[in-house]
Design a protein that fits this description.
Layout (H helix, E strand, L loop, with lengths): L3 H38 L21 H9 L2 H32 L5 H9 L10 H11 L6 H23 L4 H9 L4 H12 L1 H15 L4 H6 L9 H10 L4 H36 L1
């Protein structure tokens, strides 16, 4: 006869095994599209229409990636995406840092109302502003330029960034700044020499989340950009969809090249994202 303790242990083991099984199935379901995309990007185009869900490339068609890189104008689009996303990340961190300091350290009228108004931006979809933004940018002459993407990317990244930054700044002791004021530090020096290093986890999280949210954005880029001079990386997929409509292997290679930077950033920085969001939420 089994005791109650043994029965409880068996139930606990079964529950863990069942949970692990569910998580494994979920992980396989999430990773399979990526594996399928990589697999057929190395096959011949006609292999996609076979009976096999996956097919071992024999031999691997590396020329698909060469064609994708050269004909897809990947390098120029990559540089454009880098300029737009680095600029958006820099200004998002800069503005959220200064706004977070103003909301958590300074006393002024309508402070809470202004913070609430900024956080309401979390409820507005970025694509809901396509038409008014397009009309405004065309009027001032900055459509089809880097600014046409940087401005809305920063504007719609700020509410989440301010939320994280204010939550993190609330945990920083005010005594640190009081000592700096006694030593004669100005506000700008306090913000950038003292507060900025202390908020490094929040800054890293904001940079990564801004990058992931804007790197593969296409709708706004397609609306504002009309020349290849400023077009970003997602346009490589769009161009190949028409140019290589029947060559699916090359299209898959383009998709892999476009998705690779954001995938690498997420895999490498996943721990920083989780830590930054958790710290900001708990400390806030």
């Amino acid at each position: 006869m089994m005791t109650n303790i043994e029965i409880s242990k068996r139930r606990s083991r079964f529950s863990k095994l069942f949970l692990y099984g569910i998580l494994v199935l979920f992980s396989v379901g999430q990773l399979f599209p990526l594996v399928w995309l990589i697999d057929f990007s190395l096959c011949k185009s006609g292999d996609l229409f076979g009976a096999n869900i996956l097919k071992w490339p024999d031999p691997p068609q590396w020329n698909n990636y060469v064609t994708a890189w050269v004909d897809g104008n990947i390098f120029q689009y990559f540089i454009n995406s880098l300029i737009v996303n680095v600029s958006a990340g820099f200004f998002t961190v800069l503005f959220s840092l200064m706004m977070g300091y103003a909301f958590t350290r300074m006393e002024w009228k309508l402070k809470k109302s202004t913070l609430t108004f900024v956080l309401l931006g979390l409820m507005i979809p970025i694509h809901a502003t396509l038409l008014p933004n397009y009309m405004s940018f065309s009027y001032v002459g900055i459509d089809d330029s880097y600014l046409a993407l940087i401005i809305p990317y920063v504007a719609f990244s700020l509410p989440q960034a301010v939320y994280l930054m204010t939550g993190f700044m609330e945990s920083i002791p005010r005594s640190v700044e009081e000592a700096a004021v006694i030593d004669g530090c100005s506000i700008l020096r306090i913000v950038f020499s003292i507060i900025l290093p202390l908020t490094k986890p929040a800054v890293v999280t904001i940079l990564i989340m801004t990058f992931l949210n804007t790197w593969n954005e296409f709708i706004m880029a397609a609306t504002f950009l009309s020349s290849n001079t400023f077009r970003t990386l997602p346009f490589a997929v769009y161009n190949f969809a028409g140019q290589y409509a029947s060559n699916y292997a090359v299209q898959f290679a383009v998709m892999n090249l476009v998705a690779l930077p954001s995938l690498l950033v997420y895999v490498v920085m996943n721990e920083h994202i989780t830590k930054g969001v958790t710290d900001g939420a708990l400390k806030g």
